[in-house]
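Project outcomes to date are best conveyed with an example. Our students and postdoctoral researchers have been running inverse folding experiments weekly, and each run begins with a structure described purely in tokens. The record below, which covers 111 residues, was selected by the lab manager from last quarter's runs and is presented without edits.
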């Protein structure tokens, strides 16, 4: 159950961080305005809170593992929102990152 909760929290964190960054990008780079930027800033703030609900108590471990989730999530977001088509190396790289997440977060530890 803890692994399922952790995976769900990582997905939620990715939604808020990647979505927030995308909204800021749209507001600034695509000239969509301050409403988009403001919504992005709020989403990024929510991301910061979501990460604190991870069952593991080690900030460094959570953020290191989340980095892999961010890589894979960014490619998925780009496919859904920007029509990006990852090549096989993008996919292989994302899978390697997710394998790293699994090792960092879910490997058995003796402590």
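After processing, the design step wrote out the following sequence:
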């Amino acid at each position: 159950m803890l692994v399922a909760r952790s995976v769900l929290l990582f997905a939620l964190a990715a939604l808020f961080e990647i979505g927030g960054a995308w909204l800021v990008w749209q507001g600034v780079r695509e000239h969509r305005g301050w409403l988009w930027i403001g919504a992005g800033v709020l989403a990024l703030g929510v991301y910061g809170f979501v990460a604190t609900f991870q069952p593991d108590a080690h900030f460094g471990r959570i953020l290191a593992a989340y980095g892999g989730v961010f890589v894979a999530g960014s490619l998925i977001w780009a496919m859904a929102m920007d029509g990006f088509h990852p090549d096989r190396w993008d996919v292989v790289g994302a899978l390697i990152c997710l394998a790293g997440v699994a090792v960092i977060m879910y490997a058995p530890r003796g402590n």
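The helical segments are 2-29, 34-51, 59-82, 88-106. The chain has a mean pLDDT of 95. The training component of this project remains on track.
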